[in-house]
# Entry
Amino acid sequence: MHWRWIGALAFLLFLLLAGVSESQSPARLTKSQVPSCTRCHKDFVSVLPQKHPLVKGKDITGCLSCHIHSPSTKPEPKPFSTTIHRAHVKTDIKTHCTGCHTWSPGKSLGLPKQTISFGKASKDQMDLIKQIFTSWSGDQYLDALHANRNITCTGCHGNTLPDSGDTVENDRCLGCHGSVVDLVVKTTPKDHPDRNPHKSHLGEIACAVCHHGHKVSQAYCLGCHTKFIMKIPGGEK
# Structure
């Protein structure tokens, strides 16, 4: 009987240790468990611009001491955020968001040694974020065209985590691209001035009806006017 109890306790200890191992997997890193950048990079010098100041430390906190996250929701360029994300989400690089970010599933997604939280990211949302960032970093859609101008997700969506079915309101688009009047002037065709997609007989419609961030864009007019030729950014080549 004595040996049976010892065996049972040993089995319970095994389960507890297995639970600790699981809690420290890359998907559950805490602020004190940020991976070192030197796992992939020999040093910071090899990946930084030639005249960049010396970076102390071996993880993302060395960057964040100067490149402080801005909670601003303005659609403004963010060169550091764009550069570091595009470098780490290429399809040929096997990495995870927790290489730099802290994440507690369903509770918080943040940055090490900072109190900011981007939201309560679930596992499904993290998978969606990875998918979106991969598209944004280098496909032919509208998202990549924005990435080329150093515009991150917050430029269009504000400080909210992405979710399936998300859209962008006209005010966000017009904040960068000018008023509807400006767009009408800018997009009036020389050959057929009456075929202006921004001066439609349908009145003002949502920008997202034609302009899609993460898939092929297409002018809504072509649904009826099939013989029209209307090229659109992020559309089929």
Observations:
- The CA atoms of residues 47 and 235 lie 34 Å apart.
- Strands lie at 102-104, 108-110.
- The longest helix spans residues 2-23.
- The chain is about 30% helix and 5% strand.
